[in-house]
Structures are given as structure tokens and as C-alpha cells.
Amino acid sequence: MLEQYIPFVGEETLQELFILSRKLKDLKVLHVNSTYKGGGVAEILQRFIPLMNELGIKTDWKVFKGDEKFFSFTKKLHNLLHLPSEKGISSEEFVYYLKITYENLKEIDTENYDVVFIHDPQPMGLIVNKQKKQKWIWRCHIDTSTPDPRAWNFIENFLNSYDACIFHMPEFVYEKIEIPTYTILPSIDPLHPKNIDLSEEEIKNTLTKFGINPEKPIILQVSRFDRLKDPFGVIEAFKLVKKKYDCQLILAGSFASDDPEGEEVYKELLNLIADERDILVLNLPPDSHKEINAFQRGATVVVQKSLKEGFGLVVSEAMWKSKPVVGSNVGGIKRQIVHGITGYLVESVEGAAMRIKQLLANKHLREKMGFHAKERVKHRFLIIRHLRDYLLLIYKILN
Ligand code: UDP
Q: Where's the Glycosyl transferase family domain (predicted)?
């Protein structure tokens, strides 16, 4: 399978990867997160694990289980790590987190691995089972540069026992962190059903199947139903655009089992657009990869108006399909979009509307930006680069 990446990254890059992986042969690696489906972390792990194994590094993926109460708390914690708020963390919540962690400790065997990667705050407490010879790494997918101090104190109870942590970007690292930190940018997989080429016919058929008019310009945002993705702001921007251009808005999303807020946001959106023509809110099963692919390819302009964002894989996914993306000037979005070259970075609803209009008006501009967008992803955000970064980091931590 790895050979199939040669057309995208070249033979030399792949050879480097093989050389590096030989140095790590016989190593046993474990990844733990809290959902198999839904959201960017699961998306990456689904592709990463088989490739690591193909490289000869025995890699397993285990999922930490929780119930709604647990995930409501960890969602609050996630939001608090992004931004301070009035909501604190109660001692009851702390005890419940420990209780669920304890249950998972009985189910998830972490002892038989040399290196353990723990993704995000949900499974962090498993660290209590760390063995002397092991290396444990916390892989944080959140922008924790300005956390709520209580949320930070909470995770610090566990974090300081880790050997290292990884963030997407240096800007995400909280200044008071005490353990070694590294940065690795995420990636997309060009061979994933979500990103492979599709025929014009397949794109059109998929759009039609969902009641989308393939002949009318399409504005698209793909994301979990999450307030931080600002779907409400996208609707406002769309209404401004709509005053001048006849176009459609698709908000395509799904629920993730570790995000109980999704259903509430979805219902609010449905109420809001009940009388709107040309706005579609689609709740898809989390494995609707070909459908998302077709939407992204069929879109005229792709939007990602997040208020806060870890990386925002959807931005690279759209750029890979040669789409100009209008994204908020936050988190990993600002690392992906080159303002004025591959799309636009915006700060407000009005700014988003203005840039969408500009792109709708100018096909040549869309094509030019789309070309640069794809090139950027090819050089910086493909999975082979990501794998290499991980192998280098493991090598460094073990030596
Ligand atoms: N995604 C999907 N279906 C949806 C919504 C999202 O398959 O209805 C995928 C999306 O294509 C991307 C991932 O979920 O691969 C979301 O990752 P991102 O980093 O953009 O956001 P996160 O959900 O991790 O905050």
C-alpha cells in the first residue's frame, strides 16, 4: 500500500521512511483515543495504524469508553482548554472522571507496549498505569494556549507524569507546561475514500441525491455539529451573500460518540433554517466519506468559520480538491490557508461574506487559488510527512 503513495510524494521520500522505520523495528506502539468514528482524531488514526504496521512497527489502536455523563464533562473540559469560562470543574466531575478512568484501566491493557500515545484529555488518566520502561506521550489536538486555569490544573494532575507531549503548532503550547513539548502538524490521506478522485458523474449524482442543485453555486462547510465550528455564523454570512448571488449553502455534519453536544446544535440549526430555501443541514453517518468527498468537489467555495480550531482537517481536504477556502484566522486554519493565495482568512461574518462574494464573482481567481491550495497540501499536509514526523519523534524519545 505504501508504494501507492509514490505518485504523490516521490520515491525518495518513501525510501527515507523505510530507512527510519528499520531503526524502530520490533517496537510496540499503542494509540488510545475516545472514538472510532467522528472527528479528526479518529479520521487520522484509521489511516495511520495500518501504515505504521506496514512499516514494521507493531501498532495497535484502542478506544477509551465513557458514557454520556463522562463525555459531557470531557467536552466541557475541551472547551475550557480552548477558552476560559465561568463554568468551573466540580469535585463530583473529578471523581467521575477517575471512576471511568478506573473502569477503562481494567479493559485497556497498556503494559505490553514500548510507547503509548494518548490522544486528547479523555483517556489521559490511563497514565497511572505507566510502567518504568515505557514512554508515554500526550498527543493534544487542541489549542491550549489560553486555557482556563482550572482546566489546566485538572489535566496537569496527569500531564506531569508523561514523558512528552505533542501539539499541532508551537502557538498552541501553554507557557506553563513543564514537560518536553514537540509539534507535529496533522495530515490528510490522498488514498482515503474521502480524498480520492471522483468522476463528474459521481459528484453530480451524489449532489442530486441529497437535493442539491449541481448547477447552482454551492457554499459548503463540513464539520461536527459543534458551536466552536460556528455554523450559525456561516448561515449569517450566507444570508449576506445571498442578497447578491443566487447560491446554496450546505452544512454537512455528523455526530461523534464522544461529543454529546452535537444533537442539541443540530436541532437548533434545523429550527433556524426551517423556512429557508437554499440552506441544507445534512446529518450524515460518520463514515459517509464518498459523500463528503463529492460535496467538497462539487462546492464552489468551501468555508470553515470556526471560532477556535485545533487543526481543521476539512480545510486541507477541500484544498486537496483544488478549492479556495474561506476560513477563520484561528488555530490550524491559519497555518493551512495562505491568505490571498490559496483562499482567505477572515475575522467576522461580514468578512466571510465579502470573501465568498469575491470568489463567487471570479472563476479565474477560484481556479488560481485552487491550484495553489492543492500544491500546498501536497507539500505540507499529506500523511507520509506526518508518519515521518512521528517516527522521528519516537526515535528521539527512545534515544
Ligand atoms: N467529517 C466527516 N463527516 C462529517 C463531519 C466531519 O467525515 O459530517 C470528517 C471531516 O471530513 C474531517 C474530520 O471529520 O476528516 C473532522 O476533522 P477536523 O480536524 O476538521 O475537525 P474535528 O472534528 O477534529 O474538530
A: 208-375
Contact of 135 with 395, CB cutoff 8 Å:
no
Question: In terms of DSSP H, where are the helices of the chain?
Answer: 6-9, 11-22, 40-54, 68-82, 91-107, 149-159, 200-209, 231-242, 262-272, 289-298, 313-320, 333-336, 349-360, 363-380, 383-398
Q: Measured in angstroms, how far is the CA atom of residue 93 from the centroid of ligand 1?
A: 28
188 lines ligand 1 (CB under 6 A): no
- State pLDDT tens for residues 86-117: 888 999 999 999 999 999 999 999 999 999 99
Which has the closest alpha carbon to 148: 80, 72, 73? 80
Instruction: Check pocket membership of 311 for ligand 1, CB cut-off 6 A.
Output: yes
The response to whether residue 222 sits with its C-beta less than 6 Å from ligand 1 reads yes
Q: Within 10 Å of residue 15's Cβ, how many Cβ atoms? A: 10
Interior angle at CA 255, CA 238 and CA 147, nearest 5: 80
Atom from ligand 1 closest to the CA of residue 223: 5
Q: Report yes or no: 286 and 254 within 8 Å, Cβ to Cβ.
A: yes
To 10 degrees, the CA torsion angle through 118, 292, 380, 339?
-120
Residue 28 in grid coordinates: 510496540
Regarding the beta carbon of 313 and ligand 1, being less than 6 Å apart is answered: yes
Q: Is residue 166 within 8 Å of 182, Cβ to Cβ?
A: yes
The SS3 call for residue 326 is: strand
> Looking at the DSSP assignment, which residues form a beta bridge with residue 62?
32
38 CA to centre of ligand 1 in angstroms:
6
Q: If we measure between CA atoms, which residue out of 92, 111, 10, 2 comes closest to residue 378?
A: 10
Counting from 1 in the atom list of ligand 1, the atom nearest the Cα of 38 is 14
Contacts of 295 (CB under 8 A, 6+ apart): 206, 207, 212, 218, 220, 222, 250, 252
Q: Give the Cα separation of 172 and 347 in Å (integer).
A: 19
Half-sphere exposure of 205 (CA within 13 A, CB side): 6
Q: What is the residue type of 385? A: R
Set of cell numbers at residue 224 = 461536527
